[in-house]
Write a structure and sequence with these properties.
- The chain is mainly beta and 184 residues long.
- The chain is built from 1 helix and 12 strands; from the N terminus they run E-E-E-E-E-H-E-E-E-E-E-E-E.
- The strands form 2 sheets. Strands 1, 2, 3, 4, 5, 6, 7, 8 and 9 form a 9-stranded mixed sheet that branches.
- The N and C termini lie far apart (59 Å).
């Protein structure tokens, strides 16, 4: 059945889930659940009462989930420019697969199928869908862990710099660039 594509996004705080609501998604409300490594698992919540948190009811199986669909999901939920599939994972929190085949058309219409109605079987250990969401193809994340001012008035800082390529932590070969860091 064709449904309107009304979209409503609720943005949580830094450590909270971000929730996407699409009226044309039939299984429930899609949530991006933060995981280690700058990516999010794709979960589905049951529709709750207005202004009440929606409880996670299960996960999306990655069968049929593409980079272009990941991009649309990231754009709608987080407002990022790009998205791509992240490594699929195992079921967690004791929750089952509830949807499969989530896809969005270029016009923004999204659909999925009930997992229990699918002839396909997803592996509980390896097929939970996940996404990387990002704004720039290459980006950096800098964290300052501490600063100390010596008696000679020199400043020492302990920092960690992560290089992100398409939203994913990218481990550079060697660390020759660390000598080029300067503070102005």
């Amino acid at each position: 059945p064709h449904r309107s594509s009304g979209i409503n996004a609720e943005y949580g705080g830094h450590d909270e889930d971000v929730i996407l609501t699409c009226s044309d998604v039939l299984r429930g409300i899609y949530q991006l659940v933060p995981q280690d490594g700058h990516y999010w698992a794709v979960g589905i919540a049951s529709r709750g009462e207005p202004n009440q948190p929606n409880e996670l009811s299960g996960w999306l199986c990655d069968d049929g989930f593409t980079d272009s669909t990941a991009t649309q999901l990231c754009q709608r939920v987080l407002g990022t420019s790009f998205g791509k599939r992240a490594p699929s994972g195992a079921l967690t929190q004791g929750l089952p697969f509830v949807a499969i085949g989530y896809s969005c058309q270029p016009d923004g219409q999204c659909r999925d199928a009930a997992y229990e109605d699918s002839p396909l079987a997803c592996n509980d250990q390896t097929e939970r869908a996940a996404v990387y969401c990002y704004n720039a193809e290459r980006d950096y994340e800098v964290k300052v862990f501490g600063t100390v001012v010596s008696l000679t008035r020199k400043i020492f800082m302990k920092i960690r710099v992560k290089y992100l390529k398409e939203g994913e932590v990218h481990h550079l070969h060697g660390d020759s660039a660390k000598d080029k860091i300067s503070v102005e």
